[in-house]
C-alpha cells in the first residue's frame, strides 16, 4: 500500500511538472506567434504564391496576392468549384435540379467508406468503387505534400436493383446529395441500377478538387443533384482496321468515355485494309489479314474490353461491315471482288460476292464468335458504301441474277444486296439468342424505294453519316426509323488534316471544331421527330490517325458531344468554354489522356477574358 | 622432362578423343539436318513470318512467303534499304553524288570503334559519337533476341579543322564511304569541320537498319556519298510564351532537327501572354510574367539547351520581340500600353512606349543576359505587328513627338518606331562583342519608303511571313535584303485546327500539308534573287499547341522542309512519299518523337500502292 501511495504521489508530481512545462511552452509559443503576426503587419511581408483567384460576379479573377486580399483569394481549382452560378466545373452539366453550397472542406482520401444495399461483392461495383478512389488520388500531384488531415467521407448507395443488363431501356439517372457535420462528409446516392450509381460517382469525383494552396483535396460541403441523360445512345466509333490500336489504347479511351458519361463504344473492327479480329474457326482471316501477328484482337482481349467497358457504364457495339469494305484476310477465299482494282470507281473497297453460298457459312462462323465474345445488345452490320459498279463487272454474278429473274439494273443490284443482307441476317439470328436490333449506315439501300421494301423499321436502326441538313434524314424519320446521328459535317473527328491524295486535305475537311459539335443540336436535325433519335456518335476513321494521335483527335471534342447528348443545353458554346478547359485538364490529369489544346494557358488562368 | 612428356602425350590423347567426338557430332548433326531438309521438302512446310518483301522494279512488294520465294524475300527495312534506285530511305536525300551496293551485312553494335584526326576529347564530338551509338541501339526493339554476331565497324574521321564556330559561313558538307572486308565494315568520313562530320554520322545511322527477320542490325556493304546543303538557314521557330514547353520537350525537338539535318532553332521566347525568360537583374519580369514560378527558363536551362543544340549541329537564335507583343511581366513597369485593351484594333498585343528612357535601360539588361546565355551568332529583334493605332491613343506620346518635330501621321509613327529600333539596337550592340546580324519580321517597317530609309541591308535580315506570292517579297529582294522564308501559306504549322473565336478555325486555316511544304520551292518565291535566300523556317505559334501535341504539329512536316532546304529536289512530293513514311517511323523509334500519321499502316506495307 505504501508503495502504491508513493507511486501515486510520484505520478501526481510528474503530471504537475509536465503541466507546468506545457503551460510555459504554450505561453512562449503564443507570444512568439503574436510577435510574428506583428512583424508581418509591420513589414507588410507576404511570402506565398504570387497570384491567386478572387471570385467576382461569378468569375474567378487572377489577382496578385497581398496581405489585404489573401483571405479572399483561393487557388484556381477551388475558386472554379465554388465561384460560379452552376456547380463547379461539372462536365457534362447535370440536366436536372441542382443546389449547392459555395464552401469547401478538406477531405482525407484514405478515409472513404462506402455502403451499398445491393452490390456487395459484385465485380462491376468493385471496379467502379476502386476506380473512383483512384480518380481522387490522381488529382493529387506527385510532388504534393498532401497529408491525411481532412474529413472522412461516408458514401451510402441505394440502388433499386442489381441488374447489370445495359440496353436501350436501362435508366441511367441518379440522385446525389452531399452534407457535412463537424467530422464527416456524408454522400447519399440513389439510382435505379448500377449504371446510375456509377454515373453519380463520376459526378462526385468532379466535385472533389485539389487545392494547390493548401496541398489537399477538398469537396463541396453541400450539394443536391438530380440528373439523367437526354439521349440513350452517346458515344464514339473507333476504326481498328485502318489502324490497329493496342488494347490499352482502347481501354484508356473507354475510361475517358466514362469520365464524361458517354455510354457507347462502337467498334468498327474490320475493313478492307486489315482484319484484326481473331476468328478461331477461320484462322486464315487474321493470318492473311492482320497487319502483323501481334496486331490481332484475340477472343480474350475482346471479352476483357467488353467487361472493362461495362464496368464503366459503356456498352461495346461490334460492327462487322459487309458486303463492301472487305479485302485483306479474304485474299484466298475466292469470295471477294474489286479489291485493289484501280479501274473501279469503288477504289479501295473490296466487295463480297453475294452469290457464293460458302460466304454465308463463313459469316455464320464470324457472327457466332462475335456474339460469344461481345454479347452485344445491338449488332452493327455496316452496309457502308456498296458500289453496284463492282458487282456489275462480274458476268457470273449477272448470269446468277438472270437465272433468278433479277434485272441487271439498279433495282436488280439492290435486290442482290437485299439477298445478301437477308441471308447474312438469318445467319446472325441463327447464332444469337434473340432478334437483336441491327444498325446499318445510310446508303442507297436506306433511300426509297429500297428502304421500306427491304429494311424493317422495327428491326433496323439507321446510322446517319449524311450532312445534318440532308433531306434524306427527314425521309428516314417520316418512314418511322430510329436513328443514330453521325453527321459528317460535325461529328467526323478525322477531318481537316492531311491525306495522301491531292496535295492533300482529306475529303471532309475542314477540321470539326468543338464549337461545331457542341452546337450540333439533334432538334435541328430531326425537328418534330426528335423522339426517333436514339442519340449520336462521333466517328474516328483512322486513315490518318494512329495510337500516337488518337487521344487528341477524340478529346476534348468527345466531351462536347457528351454534354450535347447528356444535358442537351440550350445555351451556346461560349457559355461552356471555360468549363471545357477545366474538363480538358481533368482528362489529362485523371484520365491520363492527351487532349487537343483549345486555348493557351493564359485563357485557363483568365476565365472568360480570352480573347480580348 | 618426364612429366612434361607425359603431359604432352595426355594433351595429344585429349585432342584425339575430342576430335573423334566432334566428328561424330558433326556427322550426326549433318544427318539430322539432311533429314529435316528432306522432311521440309516433302511436306512443303514453312514456319516463319507470313509476309515478306520482294524487290520488283525498285519497289518492295509485300508477298506471302513460301518455300519457293523465301530466299528472295526480306524484311521491310532491309528491302527498303537495298531495293530502290536512290540509296535506302535516307532523309534528306543527299544533294551530291551517290553510289552504293544493294547488299547488306549484319553488324555488331557493340563493336564500333572510331578514330578522329582532330576532335579527341572535344565535348561536342563526344556527344555526337555517343548519340550515334544510341541511335543504333534504339533501332533494336526491346523484345529483340538480337545478339552480337555480325561485323565490327571501324570509322575513321578526317576533319580539316576543329573550329566549333557555327555561323552562316560554316560549310556543312561531308563525304562518306563504306567498304567491307571479310570481318569488318570500314567507314571513312571527311568534312571541313565538326558540323560536316556530325551530318555524316546522321547519314550513316540511316544506312543501318534493323532486320526483323534475322533480328539483327545490318548495314549497306558499300556506299560512296558526297553531300552538302543547298541552303544555310534551315529550321523551325518555337513559341514559348503562349505555351511554356519544359526543357526536355525543347531538347527532343532539337534532337529531331538534328536527325533531318535542320540546323536552326529560332526561339520566340517571350510575347504578350507570358514572360518565361529569367532575367536575373530584373526578377519582376518572370515573377509577374511567368505562367507559374516553375514555368521559367533559367540562365542555366538556356546555356544547357544552347550547348545541347550545338553538339547536334543546331544553332539557337534568340528572339526578343519588340516593340509590340509585350504584356505579362511588364504590368508594374509603366512602360507598356494597349495590353488587354479590347477597344484597340491591336487586340492582345501590348506595346512598349518608345518615349520612356527607362525602357532602354531594361532592354540593355535583357539583351546583356541574352547575349551571355545564348552567345548568339545572329539576334532576332522581332518587330512583329506594331500598330500605330496603339501609340496614337497616347497624348503624352504625341506631345513628345511634337516636341521633336515628328508629325503624328503614319510617317511620324514610323519614325517613332525607327527611334525605338535604333535605341534598342544601340543597347544591344553595347552589350554584344560585334555587330551581329539582326533579324526582323516583315511589317510596315519593311515596306518602302521606310525599309531602305530605316533598315540597313547589310545589318538586317528580313524574315518573311507574307504569303509566298506576295509582291512585297520582290521589293525586299530588289532592295538587296537577305531573307528567311516563313511564308504563312505553307510554313505555318499551327494552322487549320480549332481556335477560340468564330466557332473557330484559326486565321491561317487550312492545315498546311507536308505536300505543300515539300513543294514550297524557294525559287518560286525568289526567282532570280535566289542567292539572297538564306533559307526557311517553319513556325509553330502556340496559341492552340501544348506539350502534348507539339511533336505532331512539327513532325514529319519539318522533315518535308528539311529535304526542301538540304536537297532542294526538283522531283514532286509523290516521289518522296514512301521514303517520308519511313522517316516518320525513324522519328518515332529513334527520335522518341510523336508524329502526325500521314497514311495508314497499309501504305507503309504496300509501297507506292496507296491509294489505288
- Shape, per Cα inertia axes of chain A: elongated
Helix content of chain A: 25-40%
* Rg estimate of chain A, integer Å: 30 Å
Q: Could you state the CATH homologous superfamily of the domain at 75-227 in chain A?
A: Chitobiase/beta-hexosaminidase domain 2-like
Let me know the average pLDDT of chain A. Answer: 91
Strand segment tally of chain A: 21
Assembly state: homodimer
Strand portion of chain A? 15-25%
CATH topology-level name of the domain at 75-227 in chain A: Chitobiase, domain 2
Q: Please count the helical segments of chain A.
A: 20
Domain Rhodanese (chains A, B): 474-509
Enzyme class (chains A, B): hydrolase
Transmembrane segments (chains A, B): 7-30
Pfam families (chains A, B): Glyco_hydro_20, Glycohydro_20b2
Report on this structure:
The structure is a homodimer of 612-residue chains. Chain A is an alpha/beta fold. Chain A has a domain at 75-227: Chitobiase/beta-hexosaminidase domain 2-like (Chitobiase, domain 2, 2-Layer Sandwich). In chain A, 37% of the residues lie in helices and 19% in strands. Chain A has an eight-stranded mixed β-sheet with strand order 3-10-6-7-5-4-9-8, sandwiched between helices. Chain A has an eight-stranded parallel beta barrel with strand order 11-12-13-17-18-19-20-21, surrounded by four helices. In chain A, strands 14-16-15 form a three-stranded antiparallel β-sheet, with no helix packed on it. In chain A, helix 13 (471-478) links the parallel strand 19 (460-464) and strand 20 (482-485). In chain A, helix 3 packs parallel to helix 4 (194-206), helix 5 (247-259) packs parallel to helix 7 and helix 8 (357-374) packs across helix 11. The longest helix of chain A is centred in the first third of the chain and has 42 residues, at 2-43. Chain A is elongated and about 95 Å long. The first copy, chain A, starts with a helix and ends in a 7-residue tail after the last helix. The model of chain A is unreliable at 1-11 and 22-42 (pLDDT under 50). At the A-B interface, helix 15, helix 19 and helix 20 of A face helix 14 and helix 19 of B.
Amino acid at each position: 500500500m505504501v508503495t502504491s501511495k508513493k507511486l501515486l504521489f510520484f505520478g501526481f508530481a510528474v503530471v504537475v511538472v509536465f503541466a507546468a512545462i506545457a503551460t510555459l511552452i504554450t505561453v512562449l509559443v503564443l507570444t512568439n506567434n503574436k510577435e510574428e503576426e506583428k512583424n508581418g503587419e509591420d513589414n507588410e511581408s507576404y511570402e506565398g504564391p504570387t497570384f491567386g483567384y478572387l471570385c467576382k460576379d461569378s468569375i474567378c479573377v487572377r489577382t496578385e496576392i497581398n496581405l489585404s486580399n489573401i483571405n479572399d483569394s483561393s487557388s484556381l481549382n477551388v475558386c472554379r468549384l465554388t465561384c460560379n452560378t452552376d456547380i463547379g466545373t461539372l462536365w457534362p452539366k447535370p440536366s436536372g435540379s441542382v443546389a449547392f453550397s459555395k464552401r469547401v472542406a478538406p477531405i482525407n482520401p484514405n478515409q472513404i467508406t462506402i455502403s451499398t444495399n445491393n452490390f456487395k461483392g459484385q465485380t462491376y461495383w468493385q471496379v467502379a468503387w476502386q476506380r473512383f478512389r483512384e480518380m481522387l488520388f490522381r488529382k493529387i500531384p506527385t510532388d504534393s505534400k498532401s497529408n491525411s488531415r481532412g474529413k472522412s467521407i461516408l458514401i451510402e448507395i441505394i440502388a433499386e436493383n442489381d441488374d447489370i443488363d445495359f440496353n436501350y431501356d436501362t435508366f441511367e439517372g441518379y440522385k446525389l446529395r452531399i452534407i457535412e457535420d463537424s467530422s464527416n462528409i456524408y454522400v447519399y446516392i440513389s439510382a435505379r441500377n448500377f449504371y446510375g450509381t456509377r454515373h453519380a460517382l463520376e459526378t462526385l469525383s468532379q466535385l472533389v478538387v485539389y487545392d494547390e494552396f493548401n496541398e489537399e483535396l477538398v469537396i463541396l460541403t453541400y450539394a443536391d443533384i438530380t440528373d439523367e441523360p437526354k439521349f440513350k445512345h452517346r458515344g464514339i466509333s473507333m476504326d481498328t482496321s485502318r489502324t490497329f490500336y493496342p488494347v490499352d489504347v482502347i481501354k484508356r479511351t473507354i475510361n475517358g468515355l466514362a469520365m464524361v458519361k458517354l455510354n457507347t463504344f462502337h467498334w468498327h473492327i474490320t475493313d478492307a485494309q486489315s482484319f484484326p479480329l481473331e476468328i478461331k474457326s477461320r484462322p486464315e482471316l487474321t493470318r492473311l489479314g492482320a497487319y502483323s501477328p501481334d496486331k490481332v484482337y484475340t477472343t480474350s482481349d475482346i471479352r476483357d474490353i467488353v467487361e472493362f467497358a461495362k464496368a464503366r457504364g459503356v456498352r461495346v457495339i461490334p460492327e462487322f461491315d459487309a458486303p463492301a469494305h472487305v479485302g485483306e484476310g479474304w485474299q484466298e477465299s475466292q469470295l471477294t471482288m474489286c479489291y485493289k482494282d484501280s479501274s473501279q470507281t469503288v477504289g479501295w473497297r473490296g466487295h463480297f460476292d453475294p452469290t457464293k453460298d460458302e460466304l454465308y457459312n463463313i459469316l455464320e462462323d464470324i457472327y457466332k464468335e462475335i456474339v460469344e465474345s461481345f454479347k452485344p445488345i445491338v449488332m452493327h452490320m455496316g452496309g457502308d458504301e456498296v458500289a453496284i459498279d463492282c458487282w456489275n463487272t462480274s458476268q457470273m454474278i449477272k448470269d446468277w441474277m438472270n437465272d433468278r429473274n433479277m434485272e441487271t439494273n439498279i433495282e436488280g443490284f439492290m435486290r442482290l444486296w437485299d439477298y445478301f443482307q437477308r441471308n447474312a441476317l438469318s445467319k446472325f439470328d441463327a447464332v444469337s439468342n434473340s432478334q437483336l436490333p441491327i444498325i446499318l449506315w445510310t446508303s442507297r439501300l436506306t433511300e426509297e424505294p429500297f428502304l421500306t421494301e427491304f429494311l424493317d423499321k422495327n428491326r433496323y436502326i439507321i446510322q446517319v453519316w449524311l450532312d445534318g441538313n440532308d433531306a434524306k434524314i427527314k425521309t428516314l424519320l417520316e418512314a418511322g426509323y430510329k436513328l443514330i446521328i453521325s453527321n459528317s459535317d460535325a461529328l467526323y473527328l478525322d477531318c481537316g488534316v492531311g491525306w495522301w491524295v491531292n496535295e492533300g486535305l482529306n475529303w471532309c475537311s475542314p477540321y470539326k471544331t468543338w464549337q461545331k459539335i457542341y452546337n450540333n443540336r439533334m432538334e435541328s436535325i430531326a425537328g418534330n421527330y426528335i423522339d426517333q433519335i436514339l442519340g449520336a456518335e462521333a466517328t474516328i476513321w483512322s486513315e490518318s490517325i494512329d495510337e500516337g494521335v488518337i487521344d487528341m483527335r477524340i478529346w476534348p471534342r468527345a466531351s462536347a458531344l457528351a454534354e450535347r447528348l447528356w444535358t442537351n443545353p440550350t445555351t451556346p458554346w461560349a457559355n461552356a468554354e471555360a468549363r471545357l478547359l477545366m474538363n480538358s485538364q481533368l482528362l489529362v490529369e485523371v484520365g491520363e489522356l492527351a487532349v487537343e489544346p483549345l486555348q493557351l494557358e493564359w485563357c485557363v488562368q483568365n476565365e472568360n477574358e480570352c480573347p480580348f
